[in-house]
């Protein structure tokens, strides 16, 4: 059981206790407290797994470090007030980051505690009452009740018994609940979804451009159930052709201020764990009513482009449509047709693929950064046990669909920009933005790359074409994945905003997300704004503020969904690696810290730690940010080194792997 601290505690928002004087009077003792005013800082505290707190100060290179015994009543990511004295301490918690946690029940004497799954919550929760069915080693969802003394543990109550620790269903559900992600929809939301009419009226069809007789198909993963997008193709006698990007018209079915809309906004994204999908919309909508299933009339919002026979774009049209998809392809099936040069819609696929390749080359020439990376997939049996971890290759058909989605996203944004300017409308839109990369991180990376014989020229600022040149140079080399990962980590995080700054990674001045409204709430917002602009609707100042708030929410929800997805993969990766404990593996050093070297297994991509304390031939210390060096023998280990490692531990509890060097 992780307990509270063992020091006398006192706090005040702006004053600090400096001394205590005892005064004796005939019948009473008085303690006189002396205070001095201190400088304070407000901010979000980050607490490491070891229990040390960190808070950033504007303009300072290093974060303020706060030891465990001076964290007071703070938990990870809480908004706090910190004193800026010689030994900083947390004076006050202004706002809790969260109040619901998942954890494992443990008993200490007659008392019960919940050990949090999040190892950055540095102490356990005291549970006063244990419901029937709960017991040791059971995973539970708890609610924080209060905490007024750091010498004691915070109190919490059990909201739900999730299941026995270590069981597949229990662990996957705990990953979701710990991030506030609910699998089940509220009954009133489901009821509203069931009432939505599936039939498309003749009046509605008359309002739309009819593509039902035009060749149309979808290309998606083999296990996809919700089809957001479809592609149509129509060739003219002169060799020119029309390409349609048709997106499910979710906004037609999910109105503003409905229960469905409220739930979709709260969720923000569909979440894809290693074994399941938690949809943003109820399945009656995501897999049926809105999904562009084959051989069914479907309502869509479309961007339609006309190209000449040489693949030059002549014009475009954006508006509401109705389609009927002829075929549901998987990426693999469509690729097989291209490879064999025969099969259903081969001619259409060939022309599309040629166009996509041309578009890709043009995009790269303009500075769009090439971060093509194989996806790590985990194959599970029916009980959730991992059977295989493998890299899924990116096919031409993946790139084909990607290019057409990028085209639609960019053209929709440019269309709105021109339309609002021409019509004299106030411009309000939700952009997908990507800021410039962190120059300090890139400068550090440039120093590291020199050790490998690579040069990253940063004179005159960050040039995406220079980054692309480097990526091409490392292709096929052992350090390729490492260099790409390091570049990604130096980049800013893409996000949603009503204030446009462009998209650095794609080299687009204007960009949005229009193509996935079934699984991304931001795209649904874009559809509503796009339709409003096309109809010439006026926009109020309150609308601008509302959409900026929703953009920020969508960005936060995106991070939450990504964290859940990563954690489920990490858990199953560690579970898979348990069968390899004791084996010698080939790896590459992927990270350097003061406490050890992170090494990535080449075959599975699984990452684990080689502790510096396990290197017994010398005393090793970090030498710069990318290597460690022995103090006597001067032997070096650095980022990118290929090494032989032995797996000695695979901890599901910590979701961590421990390696030692094999020699």
UniProtKB/TrEMBL annotation:
GO terms for cellular component: cytosol. The keyword Heme does not apply. It is found in: Cytoplasm. It catalyses: Exonucleolytic cleavage in the 3'- to 5'-direction to yield nucleoside 5'-phosphates. It holds the Pfam family RNB. Residues 582-662 form the S1 motif domain. Coiled coil: none annotated. Transmembrane segments: none annotated. InterPro entries: CSD2, NA-bd_OB-fold, RNase_II/R, RNase_II/R_CS, RNase_II/RNase_R, RNase_R, RNR_Ribonuclease, S1_domain. GO terms for molecular function: exoribonuclease II activity; RNA binding. It comes from the Bacteria. It is an enzyme of class 3 (hydrolase). Belongs to the RNR ribonuclease family. RNase R subfamily. 3'-5' exoribonuclease that releases 5'-nucleoside monophosphates and is involved in maturation of structured RNAs. This is Ribonuclease R. It comes from Candidatus Campbellbacteria bacterium CG22_combo_CG10-13_8_21_14_all_43_18. The gene is rnr.
């Amino acid at each position: 059981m992780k307990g509270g601290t063992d020091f006398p505690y006192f706090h005040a928002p702006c004053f600090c206790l400096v001394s205590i004087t005892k005064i004796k009077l005939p019948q009473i003792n008085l303690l006189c407290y002396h205070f001095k005013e201190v400088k304070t800082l407000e901010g979000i505290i980050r607490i490491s797994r070891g229990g040390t707190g960190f808070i950033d100060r504007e303009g300072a290179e290093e974060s303020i470090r706060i030891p465990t015994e001076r964290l007071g009543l703070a938990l990870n990511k809480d908004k706090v007030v910190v004193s800026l004295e010689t030994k900083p301490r947390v004076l006050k918690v202004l706002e809790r980051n969260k109040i619901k946690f998942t954890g494992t029940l443990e008993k200490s004497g007659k008392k019960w505690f919940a050990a949090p799954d999040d190892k950055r919550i540095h102490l356990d929760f005291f549970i006063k009452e244990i419901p029937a069915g709960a017991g040791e080693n059971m995973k539970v969802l708890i609610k924080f009740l209060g905490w007024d003394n750091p010498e004691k543990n915070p109190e919490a109550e059990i909201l739900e018994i999730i299941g026995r620790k270590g069981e597949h269903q229990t662990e996957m559900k705990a990953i979701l609940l710990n991030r506030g992600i609910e699998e089940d929809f509220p009954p009133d939301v489901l009821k509203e979804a069931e009432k939505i009419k599936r039939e498309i009226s003749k009046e509605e069809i008359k309002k739309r451009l009819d593509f039902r007789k035009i060749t149309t198909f979808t290309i998606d993963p083999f296990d996809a159930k919700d089809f957001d997008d479809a592609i149509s193709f129509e060739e003219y006698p002169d060799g020119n052709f029309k390409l349609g990007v048709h997106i499910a018209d979710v906004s037609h079915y999910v109105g503003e201020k409905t229960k469905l809309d409220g739930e979709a906004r709260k969720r923000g994204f569909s979440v894809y764990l290693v074994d399941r999908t938690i949809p943003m919309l109820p399945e009656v909508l995501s897999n049926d009513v809105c999904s562009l299933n084959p051989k069914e009339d479907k309502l869509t919002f479309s961007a339609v482009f006309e190209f000449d026979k040489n693949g030059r774009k002549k014009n475009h049209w954006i508006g509401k449509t109705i389609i009927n998809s002829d075929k549901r392809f998987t990426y693999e099936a469509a690729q097989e047709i291209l490879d064999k040069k025969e099969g259903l819609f081969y001619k259409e696929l060939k022309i599309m693929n040629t166009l996509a390749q041309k578009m890709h080359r043009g995009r790269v020439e303009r500075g769009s950064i090439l971060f093509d990376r194989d996806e790590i997939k985990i194959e599970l049996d029916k009980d959730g046990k991992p059977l295989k971890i493998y890299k899924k290759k990116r096919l031409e058909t993946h790139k084909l669909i990607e290019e057409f989605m990028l085209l639609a996203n960019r053209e929709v944004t440019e269309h709105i920009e021109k339309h609002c300017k021409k019509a004299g409308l106030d411009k309000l839109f939700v952009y997908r933005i990507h800021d410039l990369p962190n120059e300090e991180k890139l400068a550090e990376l440039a120093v590291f790359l020199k050790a490998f014989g690579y040069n990253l020229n940063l004179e005159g600022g960050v040039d995406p074409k220079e980054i692309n040149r480097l990526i091409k140079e490392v292709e096929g080399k052992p350090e390729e994945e490492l260099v790409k990962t390091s570049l990604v980590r130096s980049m800013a995080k893409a996000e949603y905003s009503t204030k446009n700054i462009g998209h650095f990674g794609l080299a687009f001045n204007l960009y949005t997300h229009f193509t996935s409204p079934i699984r991304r709430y931001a795209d649904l917002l874009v559809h509503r704004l796009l339709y409003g602009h096309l109809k010439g609707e006026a926009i109020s100042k309150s609308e601008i503020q509302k959409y900026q708030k929703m953009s920020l929410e969508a960005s936060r929800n995106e991070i939450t969904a990504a964290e859940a997805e990563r954690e489920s993969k990490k858990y199953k990766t560690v579970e898979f690696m348990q069968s390899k404990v004791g084996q010698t593996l080939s790896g590459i050093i992927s990270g350097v810290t003061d406490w050890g070297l992170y090494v990535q297994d080449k075959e599975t991509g699984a990452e684990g730690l080689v502790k510096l304390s396990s290197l017994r031939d010398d005393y090793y210390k970090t030498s710069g940010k990318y290597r460690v060096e022995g103090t006597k023998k001067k032997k070096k280990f650095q980022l990118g080194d290929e090494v032989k490692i032995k797996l000695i531990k695979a901890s599901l509890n910590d979701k961590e792997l421990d390696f030692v060097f094999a020699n």
